[in-house]
Every structure is written in C-alpha cells, then in structure tokens.
Design a protein that fits this description.
Layout (H helix, E strand, L loop, with lengths): L1 H10 L3 E8 L10 E8 L5 E12 L5 E4 L5 E4 L4 E8 L6 H14 L10 H11 L3 E6 L13 H13 L5 H5 L3
Parallel strand pairs: 1-7
Antiparallel strand pairs: 1-6, 2-3, 2-6, 3-4, 4-5
Helix pairs in contact: 2-3
Length: 176
C-alpha cells in the first residue's frame, strides 16, 4: 500500500487504493460477518462496494448474506471483499468529510444506530469522479475478532506469525 501511494498518489491526488480478499478468506467460523463486496473493472479499478450483512457459511458449505436492499444474496466465495484496508492521499479527505456532514444532517433522531460505511462513501466518490481507486488483490487469509469465540484463534495466529519472525517479539509477549 505504501509503495502504491508513494508512486501513484504523488502523480495524481485523486488516486487511492484498497486491498481486497476473496470472500471465502474473510469469514468467521463462529458467526455472521458484514463485508463490502466489490465490483472491480478489468483494469482493477473499484467500481462499487456493496455492504452486505449477515454473511454466513451454511451447513452445506454455501455462502449467503443480506444485500443493501434487504434481499438474500448467495455468494460463490471468490467475490472480492473489502476489509477496509484503504490507502488515501490527503487530498481525498475533505470529500468524505462533506459526505459525513450530509449523513449527520439527514440521519434523524430515530437513527442513532445508523452508520456511514466507508465503502458507501468511497462508492459516492467514485461515482462523482472525485476518486479513482485501484484494487490490490490479496489471497491472504483474514483473521480478526468478529465474534468472542474468534479470540483464541487470533491469538494463536499472532503467536505463530511472531514465531515466524513476521512480528517483533515484543508484540507476542502481550498475547496470552
């Protein structure tokens, strides 16, 4: 990401990037997740991100979740998912700030649990021509704590990565 921003961001302040992962590599074994499902052009530019919620693997191995229209959506698993690993240049930040202001003005008191998803803001920027987002594809496996039961697996993964030298030893001392 740093190399992309250093190279591309200096040439064009509207250039941004995100890292996308195959959906199947981003699921929790312990419960439903929300993921931004990406539509990517053939030249690897982000066209849209749709925030889907309640994504689960069924007992038969099938994947499904709920799209922004409230419909059940089935997934193959190879869809590219955003894990909110974004790279923006400073020139992009005033734009989402305006979108957030609009969001707050339009929210209403009955919407205290409303959320302005970063992917929705980025999609608005793309549609308005204010941003071009390159998609950096990763086949890496996400790990994180979506559900309480994920904690032990995350701790074990961090310890193993530390053992392999991917993290400084100092970090692994805090993981029990």
């Amino acid at each position: 990401m740093a190399i992309f921003l250093e190279r591309e961001g200096q040439q064009d302040a509207t250039r941004s990037a995100m890292v996308a992962y195959p959906l199947r590599n981003t699921l929790s074994e312990h419960g439903a997740v929300s993921r931004g499902i990406c539509t990517v052009s053939t030249d690897r530019h982000l066209l849209e991100v749709e925030e889907c919620t309640g994504i689960l693997r069924g007992e038969d191995g099938s994947l499904s979740g709920i799209d922004t229209a409230g419909r059940v959506r089935r997934f193959a698993g190879d869809e590219m998912a955003s894990m909110n690993f974004w790279g923006f240049t400073p020139d992009v930040f005033p734009q989402p700030g305006r979108l957030f202001g609009d969001f707050l003005r339009n929210m209403g008191l009955d919407s205290l649990k409303s959320e302005l998803y970063i992917p929705s803001a980025v999609t608005s920027l793309i549609e308005s021509g204010a941003a071009v987002v390159s998609v950096l594809m990763s086949n890496g496996r996400w790990f994180g704590v979506t559900c309480r039961e994920d904690r032990a697996a995350v701790a074990a993964t961090i310890k193993e990565m530390s053992r392999q030298g991917l993290f400084k030893t100092l970090l692994s001392k805090d993981v029990k």
